[in-house]
Amino acid sequence: MAVAKHIQVYDTTLRDGCQSEDMSLTVDDKVEIAVALDRMGFDYIEGGWPGSNDRDAEFFRAIKRARLQHAKIAAFGATRRAGIRAAKDRNLELLLRAETPVATVVGKTWDFHVREALRIPLAANLEILNDTIAFLAKNVDEAIFDAEHFFDGYLSNPDYALECLKAADSAGAHLICLCDTNGGRLPGEIEAGVRAARATVSCPIAIHCHNDAELAVANTLAAVAAGASQVQGTINGVGERCGNANLVSIIADLQLKLGYNCVPTARLKQLREVAMLVYELANITPFARQPYVGRSAFAHKAGLHVSGLQRNSRTYEHLDPASVGNDRRVLLSELSGRANLVYKAREFGIDIDASSDKIQPLLDELKRLEGEGYAFDGADASFELLMLRTLGLAKDHFGFVSFRVLDDKWHEDHAPFSEAVVVIEGPDGVRTRNAAIGNGPVNALDSALRSALIPYYPNLQPMHLADYKVRVLDNGRGTAARVRVLIESTDGKRRWGTVGLSDNVVEASWQALVDSVEYKLHKDNLKPRQRPQIRANGAAPRSGRASATEGSGAAKG
User: Is 134 exposed, middle or buried (0-12, 13-18, 19+ CB in 10 A)?
Assistant: First the structure.
């Protein structure tokens, strides 16, 4: 059996990716990402431009202590300035101070840029390229030349663009990377440029594409088909303007679709984990529809699709989601059929047959609620409770009596605060009245409700709100519009979503909060404690007990 050809993976998330307008990483963030990329099996990690800022210079010092097992760290810079030898160039000196085994420098290959940006003769640029690469090749293990705007240059003046590559190759470049810097070229143009470059130089060719025409991944694949042996890009495609080529998709395409080897097969399952790590550290909301690793990449809503999936997953999935570390999700909506409900029921551990007479009432209730404006796509916990209630399998852990919320702002310079009072009936039949202060009404309600329930259910202690979203449904009604609230909660081990709907945002939030607590109690399946019988001022236990707690820092509302 033939061994799959290895395509090197060169990551530039920590340098080119950080040029994205919404991207900012600390030194510790960059080290954590580098360690994750090394663990996955990436070949090269470009750490930054040591001559541009102190943070990148610090990264190169810090990464030495990480002791990577596989990846080579590359420092990035530019070719020497005109009129000065490479050995005397300050930026090249800083590049070498990073003490990395690989040095990557960017240089001009488009005659338009040489004339307009550098404002030097074309021959002078060839001298710069040759001198810079020759200097680096003597001082580092690998000198890589990034041929900036190569494909634009090749279309404009192919002879000169190729002369630039020859200048770097003859000087000892270990690899030449062809860059679609403006991100506007088409796959056919990329393929032609790579073939011409391969016929011109003796060193290996790499590809570096930007996504301004939404073709960065396609262009990268075209380059590999034409003979490129290294792909450059960023995790999740982050980068300047419209971003860089997305290495997550490129690796999956090359390895799972085209039979190349990029990373060890067993480590492909880390793709989603690495993608989410970069989103988290950069404080960027993950793109739900991102191919391969997005939350919606293997989400199925139509009943016809789910019915097919139950017979054979290949009917509506191009590959096994587990191969890239993702999961299949079956969604519930007005488009759902019996197959969706049966699938979800079994996912929740409820054994039910598609022919059961209990399915239709549940389906009818789901469609009624969806018609009102409820959405269960991101609220699996609320749907599981709905299913349990409709099937007569639910258990109420407490009874609602009343709540009241007051908002106050005492001075223009002071932040407003909210006070919530919640009255519930516990599992022992005793009514309790609990008050809490929070930084918003939802925070206050959440604190008051959990304050009332923790004496019965101590397992609620670590639970808190992780996310809170409000969607206005009736745009024409202004402030009188109905709102849908989606809440994500976590206890440190699980994360679940619940939904509420009302003309009143506090009421909608309360519905989602109650479902969130009920879901936690349902999953933990613990018996309630006996609440201490504390009488306030001689009152009977049923009259309740008041307590005040500070807000927990949960979501505002």
Answer: middle
